[in-house]
Amino acid sequence: MTGSGRGAEFELIERIRVRVSTRADVLLGIGDDAALLRVPEGHDLAVATDTLNAGVHFPHDTIPSAIGWKALAVNLSDLAAMGARPAWCTLSLSLPHADEAWLDGFVDGFLQLAAQHGVALVGGDTTRGPLSVCVTAHGLVQHGGGLRRDAAREGDDIWVTGTLGDAAAALAQLQAGGVADPALRARLDLPEPRVAFGVALAPLAHACIDVSDGLLQDLGHVCRASGVGAEVDVDRLPASPALAARSSGDTLRGEQACGGDDYELCFTAPPDAAGAIAAAAKATGTAATRIGRIVDTPGVAAVRADGGTWTPPRSGYAHFA
Ligand code: ADP
Ligand code: MG
User: Whose CA is nearest to atom 11 of ligand 1?
Assistant: First the structure.
């Protein structure tokens, strides 16, 4: 913030600072020019950044605590997709006004999720401007043990966690001018990053990505990076009860295979890892479903239950399309 706004800026920062918890590996947190963090011996640092803009990444009517939750959740989801255990984060806030009630609600949601995963908020930036939130999250993986996009191999099973399509269905309801089903809206507003499962997956999976822009599009990134292709059984994609009650046929396929904002993990693994993956899923309370296989023909094909190929109406979310 500029001019007299700096006093308000310091007050906002102080409102955040007094609420954060720390960790033993934070040598210096909020209050200096930079944080000092200790990376333990034998580990690599995984770093992810994601920005949330009002009206693009969350509907304008989203409550502040949900914006705070989601801003951190999407970043923890990226770390989970690397098999990294989250440790620290920073928060850059652009706010239209120095609105303390809004900030308190935002910080409620943000710190609730941070506490669940033992993540310390160690710094950030606070400025005046259109509502926008940028979080950087730092996590730790065993040296050389990060899960990458470029490691899928022909013959791998393709898996996905949780269920797909709820957030896309909620968004479709909102865009049609209606009110979203609360169960679907909760998936849009409060995604649950698959942190514990991602960590458990690190020694088991070949390649992994988090599904943020649509399953087929995100799986396409894995295939291109790995020099392979994929066949997805589009009628075997896991659906929540709320979605199954509402959508069917091509609408359901589109929401599940092409919708955004799922924040589930899509990963590939050799078939002989299936038992260990099922055990890791059970141990972390995460559903994991086999949805297809990696093939050597490039591209991502969606196969219907009747054996025919399903052609998506659109591939996924692209900001500059
Ligand atoms: P500088 O001018 O050195 O960038 P700032 O006045 O922007 O310092 O920030 C002061 C301290 O507060 C820094 O340690 C910074 O990391 C922290 N900080 C600023 N904004 C936030 C925020 N939104 N969340 C957490 N920490 C913040
Ligand atoms: Mg600053």
Answer: 31
Mean pLDDT value across residues 301-311: 97
Give dist(CA 274, CA 288) in Å, integer. 10
Longest dimension (CA), the chain: 66
Mutate to test the pocket of ligand 1, among 125, 132, 133, 135 (most ligand atoms within 8 A of CB): 125
Return mean pLDDT, the chain. 95
Q: Is the pLDDT of residue 1 over 60?
A: no
In degrees and rounded to multiples of 5, residue 58 shows phi and psi of -155, 145
Contacts of 189 (CB under 8 A, 6+ apart): 58, 62, 63, 66, 69, 70
Distance from residue 282's CA to the centre of ligand 2 (Å): 43
Q: Decide: 306 in ligand 1 pocket, CB within 6 A.
A: no
Give the separation between CA 12 and CA 32, rounded to whole angstroms.
Answer: 16
Closest residue CA from atom 14 of ligand 1 = 31
Q: Whose CA is nearest to atom 1 of ligand 1?
A: 33
d(CA 135, CA 275): 36
Instruction: Output the pLDDT for position 313.
Output: 82
Instruction: Please give the Cα distance from 316 to 257 (Å, whole number).
Output: 8
**Is 101 within 8 Å of 95 (Cβ atoms)?**
no
32-65, pLDDT tens digit by residue?
999 999 999 999 999 999 999 999 999 999 999 9
Which ligand is in closest contact with the Cα of 32?
A: 1
Q: Is the CB of 123 under 6 A from ligand 1?
A: yes
Q: How far is CA 73 from CA 185, 240, 263, 295, in A?
A: 15, 20, 8, 32
Tell me which H or E stretch contains 241.
helix 241-246
CB 153, CB 270: distance < 8 Å? yes
Residue 124 CB–ligand 1 contact under 6 Å: yes
Give the H or E element holding residue 279: helix 274-283
> Residue 260 carries which DSSP code?
S
